[in-house]
Amino acid sequence: MMPVNQEPSSLGPRAALTLHAVFVVTGASAAAVQIVLLRELMDAWRGDEMSFGVSLFVWLLFGAIGSLTYAAVRRTRKPTPTMLARVLPVIGVAAPLAVALARLTRGFAGLAVGELAGFPALLGAAALSLGPFTVLAGFAFPLATALMSASQRSRLTSAGRVYVLESLGAVAGGALMSFALVPTWGPMRIAFAVTLATAIASMALMAAERSSGRTSGRLPVVWVSLLAVASVVMLGPLSGRADDLLVAAGLGDAELVSRVPSRYGQIVATRSGSQLNLYASGVLVASDPDRMTAEEKVHITMLEHSRPRSVLLLGGGLGGAVREILKHPDVERLDYVELDPDLIRAAEGGFDDNMTGGLHDPRVNITYADARFFVKRARGVYDVIIVGAPDPETLQLNRLYTREFMAEASAILAPDGVLGFTVQSSESYIGRELGAFLACVRATAASVFPDVALLPGEPCHVLASASPGRLTRSADVLSRRLRERGIDALYIREYYLRDRLARERVAYLDEAVERAPARINTDLIPTCYYLTLVLRNRQFSGAPGVLLAARRYVHPGGALLVALVIAAVFGP
């Protein structure tokens, strides 16, 4: 039981009212910082949903450490509003510090821009950036509950009231972030807004205590006032400059060209020598020059159709893909679906026609929407559907590789239409893990389409059609169509097709996929996502073999959990 002399003293009416407002402010501040830091860790560490899991684990762990720290302090010090008033500005200072550390830790680890990192590296970065703020927030909550108990009948009532007030603040802060601040403000500006809010809350609480004559100790009014003034200054152009410097610090030898805040994550353009790169949430979207990627993404699938007139492109239109589609002479309509309009604006603002060529052609219709949402509600019929999204590295991307998506795409595909996309593979060696991934992709497509073909190479082309016998893996047929259409291609030419579709390559790919276990990828059982995690983790440790073994005996949902645990334990 707590010593009697350590019980908090009763509060005056003004102090109690101010304390209620402070709890709302701290709840809103915590929500804002949590959202900013989760986004920053995602951007800086090229994370996925697992990044959220790691970050939230660190948030809860260090919050508990903060609460335990308060329990130790309370044994020797009496909780007072002044103590909380002193903690609040420190919490405010920790907010921009956390944002800076989220960016700088990647440079400390020596990772290049776009380079993957293992789970332990992400865990360390989350602990370093989230730790100080969450320890302080964890310290402040039981302190606030103790102070509230001075004006309530029971500690249970006081704890419940603090929860309610902080939750109201968190809801308000989350709504403000989602609808106003995230799309327009940079991370450092939001962090310094939190600094300013906590400084004002601290001054209000100190003023209430002073007016009631209950002040204990000397109040750091000057220090808090300077903190508030500095925050106001940083809310101006300096905060944007600070964001640029932090992003540039994590680019290594690359030069920062531009940075565009978006509701989906930061969009960053960099320059490395003569090459321009565009990143969204830390993932490479397109490069200039990189004509080969655009040609591979487009022409193989387009050549599989005898005369494509209407085309649907789901993501991946930057980097020249739209321009390459329009090279096919019979194309009358191209519907291009992109999730983030800021991505197009960033590309048009910092790149030339090699990146954005064809976007303003009258045959092109650009829709900003989620690809699954668009496909579900599309009313047109398409000869060709090209999925230009990256591999299923996240659960959101995995939705474009599931059986449900294949069925939705089949519904808007012409009877002789072709669906095509590319996934990671290898030209020379397909191991057990990669074979299982490719087998999963093929089995998922084959569960909807009667005709499915995999074309060997890096990347592997996956093709599907509702008409049996429609697809071909004949280099002669594809080369003839290429010549007939008069397509000016630099890489996808006859010699390329004959090399990629050599009999030995095709036979090796088929054999590797046939001997691998094949599961169907669905929205509720994201097997492709799990196997992508296995392939990614292979770059950092020997754990994938253990993970794949676990998959044989555990339901894929449980195997995913096992994957995360083993990756965290056995990663670098």
What is the percentage of strand-forming residues? 5-15%
Which stretches are poorly predicted, pLDDT < 50 over at least 5 residues?
Answer: 1-5, 542-554, 566-572
Count of individual beta strands: 11
How many DSSP helices?
21
**End-to-end span in angstroms?**
45 Å
Tell me roughly what share of residues is in helical segments.
Answer: 55-70%
Outline the biggest β-sheet: 7 strands, mixed
Mean pLDDT: 83
The radius of gyration is 28 Å
Shape: elongated
Structural class of the secondary elements? Answer: alpha/beta
Strand order, sheet with most strands? 7-6-5-8-9-11-10
Describe it for me?
It is a single chain. With 572 residues, the chain is of the alpha/beta class. The chain is built from 21 helices and eleven strands. The strands form two sheets. It has a seven-stranded mixed sheet with strand order 7-6-5-8-9-11-10, with helices on both faces. The chain has a four-stranded antiparallel sheet with strand order 1-2-3-4, sandwiched between helices. Helix 1 runs parallel beside helix 3 (81-108) and helix 6 (187-212) packs antiparallel against helix 7 (221-249). The model is unreliable at 1-5, 542-554 and 566-572 (pLDDT under 50).
How is this fold's topology laid out?
Elements: H1 13-44, H2 49-74, H3 81-108, H4 119-149, H5 155-181, H6 187-212, H7 221-249, E1 255-260, E2 267-272, E3 275-280, E4 283-288, H8 291-304, E5 310-314, H9 321-326, E6 333-338, H10 341-350, H11 353-356, E7 364-368, H12 371-377, E8 382-387, H13 395-398, H14 403-411, E9 413-423, H15 432-446, E10 451-455, E11 460-465, H16 475-484, H17 494-500, H18 503-514, H19 527-537, H20 543-553, H21 556-570
Parallel strand pairs: 5-6, 5-8, 6-7, 8-9
Antiparallel strand pairs: 1-2, 2-3, 3-4, 9-11, 10-11
Helix pairs in contact: 1-3, 1-4, 1-5, 1-6, 2-4, 3-4, 3-6, 3-7, 4-5, 6-7, 15-19, 16-17, 19-20, 19-21, 20-21
